[in-house]
Specification:
Largest sheet: 5 strands, mixed
Number of helices: 9
Order of helices and strands: HHEEEHHEHHEHHH
Number of strands: 5
Structural class: alpha/beta
Shape: flat
Strand order of the largest sheet: 1-2-3-4-5
CATH class of the largest domain: Alpha Beta
Number of domains: 3
């Protein structure tokens, strides 16, 4: 009896345990199914997100590569243009180098150097002054031929410009490396400049024909700058010789001053002519004023005559109206006719008056 109860009790507990286990298994299976579905959904979502991000990343990389390619192409095009410009500049530099070598060859020859200075002097003078104010290669009374003669009135008189200049000593000074060579070049440069200044003073300052001074033209601004910067005593000595050293820049300023002097001289020469023309103009103005006054008198007389004509016309009109009134007021009687005749005679007599 007791064994049966125990078996019964134990059997029910085992069945209950099995039921619970079954429920747990089913619950776990359902949870696993849900978990599997969630994992699949998350996997699909993650896969979709990764695909979208990969697509965007691929698109961005493509755009970046395209932009980089475009910029690289533009940069290469600009680089080619700049290389072309550099090639052209290199070509110009090569040509300029050849011209500089040619210029050095010209300046190395004294005669060619003198011709170079004369041409530059001619260009400056022709651009600054009228043709009547200068002459080139003029022979003076002493037989010396001046490179240029500026025609100025007295005072100061005509001024000679010489375009020859010493260049060898300047090159020696520039190329000197040691102190001894520089001192030697300085002494040689000073000697050459002063000798040239002295020659200009003796040859181109002619009493009674030219001014009491002359100009020494240096076609090189570098030589002029070196002279005024480091050889002040040479410039001061040139003043004592009454020779003024000029460069292309200072010569242009001097020529502009000369042009102003020439213009002032022409104005003084024409002063008498201008004064005579002004006197004639004043006489013409006085004559015009007299004629205007006469015309005003004529206009006044004409106005007076017009007023008289207007008065006469008004009188004629009034008398005509009176005659009309006399004719309208006449009667058929003889006495009135006679009176009217007398009145008409009187009216016509008044009209004649």
């Amino acid at each position: 009896m007791l064994l049966f109860r125990w078996n019964r009790t134990g059997g029910s507990s085992q069945a209950e345990l099995m039921g619970r286990l079954t429920q747990l298994a089913e619950s776990n299976a359902a949870q696993q199914t849900q978990l599997a579905e969630r994992l699949q959904a998350q996997e699909r979502s993650l896969s979709k997100t990764l695909d979208e991000r990969l697509t965007n990343l691929t698109h961005r990389i493509g755009q970046t590569l395209q932009q980089s390619s475009t910029k690289t192409g533009e940069t290469m095009a600009k680089l080619q243009e700049r290389l072309a410009v550099i090639d052209a500049a290199q070509k110009n530099i090569t040509e300029l180098s050849g011209k500089v070598v040619g210029l050095q060859d010209i300046l190395s020859n004294k005669q060619a150097r003198g011709t170079f200075g004369e041409i530059q002097l001619q260009d400056l003078v022709q651009n600054a002054l009228p043709p009547s104010a200068y002459a080139f290669q003029v022979t003076l009374r002493n037989g010396r031929r001046a490179d240029c003669l500026i025609n100025l009135p007295n005072p100061p008189g005509s001024i000679v410009i010489d375009a020859k200049f010493p260049l060898e000593s300047y090159r020696m000074l520039v190329n000197a490396n040691t102190k001894i060579d520089k001192n030697t070049a300085r002494r040689q440069f000073t000697t050459d400049i002063l000798k040239h200044v002295s020659d200009i003073s003796k040859r181109y300052i002619v009493h009674g024909e030219t001014a009491e001074s002359a100009l020494m033209f240096l076609p090189s601004e570098a030589v002029y700058a070196e002279l005024h910067a480091n050889f002040v005593e040479v410039v001061e000595k040139s003043y004592s010789f009454r020779v003024w050293i000029v460069s292309p820049t200072t010569l242009m300023a001097t020529l502009n001053t000369v042009r102003a002097i020439l213009k002032d001289a022409q104005m003084r020469e024409q002063a008498d002519v201008i004064q005579q023309e002004v006197m004639k103009m004043l006489r013409d103005v006085a004559r015009l004023d007299q004629r205007v006054e006469n015309l005003e008198k004529h206009f006044g007389q004409a106005e007076k005559d017009l007023k008289g004509i207007r008065v006469s016309a008004e009188k004629v009109t009034n008398r005509g109206e009176r005659i009309t009134e006399i004719e309208l007021s006449g009667s058929s009687g003889a006495e009135e006719t006679e009176n009217n005749s007398i009145s008409s005679d009187q009216a016509f007599h008044q009209i004649e008056k």
